[in-house]
């Protein structure tokens, strides 16, 4: 179907107007980079300015006064966050940044004991995850060369076979302390089934956590039912909450009332006695019990603009549009440029989110040049070494016509080169 018709029929088309659209050469950008930094919701400024006004007018009392008082501020985003990831409110918290949360939750859920010392993750994981995991192994007196298992795709393939992943989990069985997987792999855009791999890890007695950086706000999630021990994510990609936004964490309710060992701070202490200032740590039940510090209210404010948009639009409706958008981009790319490129991301919609990872047949140098050339024209994708152009049509603000523009711009430039 034609892009103009699809845009006209799009029930979510108006959500685009809730975002600031960056411009190049006097024209709205065609923005395909929500996988890196989502666009700014127009309401974000209001919420940040509200915090600044509270601070200027009320000083310390703003902690305790009014609807948006700072003391329980993280609670203002709790319900929306829980709904977005398919969790109970008790299971989620907005705090810190992604890698910090990964470390905090590994401090609890990676507890090597006896022969159970290994961590299994995907090969070519995002470097920060790899660094976090390897350093946890070292921190616990292990050796990453021995204790870190990285499951790779077959030689000459890009995608990891989910059966091979479960087979590796079964093979290392009683030696596995933790499995850490992505919701969506950042280079290839491959989605992993949280429930399936959670069952595989739990069946051998290992704990499992997910890095949902590229899945949250992109795929509908059912974390409570899927049952992983923990999950972490950032909020600056598909959650549109700003550069370095306050991240999120999920801890399954089966751990909510246990006094699991953790790296503790006063904000994770039981709320009713936090200000008694006693020396003993008593954890707040649920994910909030992993908080360390009082939250950065200014940084948290944009979440109050971004999360309600997901509630209003509905994750199922967003996903329906997302599948259409990504398939539209995919078929245009392949119809017009099938001789020039291949798409690394799985074709099957259940195995991907909105991102398409594109590899040019004529090699990485041309690919990188194309990325720069498109950027200069206001067609914003991103580049991931060694040879991947990532393009993510985001259902909240990308038009079907934007997808056509991307394909036309790429086709025109490839013709010149
Ligand atoms: C998959 C994945 N994991 C971890 C990170 C690191 O995030 P942060 O710098 O917020 O800790 C990123 C950042 O883009 C990512 O894409």
Structure commentary:
The mean pLDDT is 97. The strands form four sheets. A seven-stranded mixed beta sheet has the order 4-10-9-8-7-5-6, with helices on both faces. The chain is an alpha/beta fold and 417 residues long. It has helices spanning 3-9, 44-58, 78-85, 98-109, 127-139, 144-147, 162-172, 194-203, 223-226, 297-300, 303-313, 315-337, 364-376, 400-416, and strands at 23-24, 27-28, 30-31, 92-94, 118-122, 148-151, 176-182, 207-211, 230-233, 248-251, 341-343, 356-360, 379-380, 382-384, 388-391. It is globular, with a radius of gyration of 22 Å. The site of pyridoxal-5'-phosphate (PLP) has 12 residues, from helix 4 and helix 5. Residues 97-99, 126, 128-129, 182, 186, 211, 213-214, 234 line the site of pyridoxal-5'-phosphate.
| Percent range for β-strand residues | 5-15%
- Highest CATH level, the class of the largest domain: Alpha Beta
Number of domains: 2
CATH architecture of the largest domain: 3-Layer(aba) Sandwich
CATH superfamily descriptor of the largest domain: Type I PLP-dependent aspartate aminotransferase-like (Major domain)
Mean pLDDT: 97
Distance between the termini: 30 Å
Percent in helix:
25-40%
**Hetero compounds:** pyridoxal-5'-phosphate
Report the C-alpha radius of gyration, rounded. Answer: 22 Å
Shape summary = globular
Stretches where pLDDT is under 50 for at least 5 consecutive residues are: none
**H/E series, N to C?**
HEEEHHEHEHHEHEHEHEEHHHEEHEEEH
Q: Main sheet: which strands, in order across? A: 4-10-9-8-7-5-6
Structural class: alpha/beta
């Amino acid at each position: 179907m034609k892009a103009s018709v699809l845009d006209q029929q799009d029930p979510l088309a108006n959500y685009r107007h809730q975002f600031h659209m960056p411009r190049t050469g006097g024209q709205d950008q065609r923005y395909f980079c929500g996988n890196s930094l989502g666009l700014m919701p127009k309401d974000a400024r209001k919420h940040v300015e509200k915090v600044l006004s509270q601070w200027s007018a009320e000083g310390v009392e703003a902690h305790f006064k009014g609807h948006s008082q700072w003391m329980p501020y993280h609670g203002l985003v709790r319900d929306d966050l829980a709904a977005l990831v398919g969790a109970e409110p008790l299971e989620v918290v907005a705090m810190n940044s992604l890698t910090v949360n990964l470390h905090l939750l590994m401090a609890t859920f990676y507890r090597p004991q006896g022969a159970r010392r290994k961590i299994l993750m995907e090969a070519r994981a995002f470097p920060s995850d790899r660094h976090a995991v390897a350093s946890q192994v070292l921190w616990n007196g292990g050796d990453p060369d021995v204790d870190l298992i990285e499951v790779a795709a077959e030689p000459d393939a890009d995608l990891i076979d989910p059966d091979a992943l479960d087979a590796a989990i079964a093979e290392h069985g009683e030696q596995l302390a933790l499995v850490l997987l992505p919701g969506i792999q950042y280079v290839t855009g491959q989605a992993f089934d949280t429930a399936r791999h959670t069952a595989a890890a739990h069946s051998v007695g290992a704990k499992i956590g997910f890095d949902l950086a590229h899945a949250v706000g992109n795929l509908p999630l059912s974390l409570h039912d899927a049952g992983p021990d923990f999950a972490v994510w950032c909020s600056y990609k598909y959650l549109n909450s700003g550069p370095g936004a306050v991240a999120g964490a999920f801890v399954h309710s089966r751990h909510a009332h246990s006094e699991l060992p953790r790296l503790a701070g006063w904000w994770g202490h039981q709320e009713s006695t936090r200000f008694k200032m006693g020396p003993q740590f008593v954890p707040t039940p649920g994910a909030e019990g992993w908080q360390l510090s009082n939250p950065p209210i200014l940084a948290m404010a944009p979440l109050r603009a971004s999360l309600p948009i997901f509630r209003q639009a509905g994750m199922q409706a967003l996903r329906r549009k997302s599948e259409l958008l990504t398939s539209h981009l995919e078929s245009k790319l392949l119809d017009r440029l099938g001789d020039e490129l291949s798409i690394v991301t799985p074709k099957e919609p259940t195995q991907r989110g909105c991102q398409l990872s594109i590899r040019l047949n004529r090699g990485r140098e041309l690919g990188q040049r194309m990325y720069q050339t498109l950027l200069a024209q206001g067609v914003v994708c991103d580049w991931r070494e060694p040879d991947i152009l990532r393009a993510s049509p985001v259902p909240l603000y990308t038009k079907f016509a934007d997808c056509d523009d991307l394909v036309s711009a790429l086709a025109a430039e490839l013709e010149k080169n």
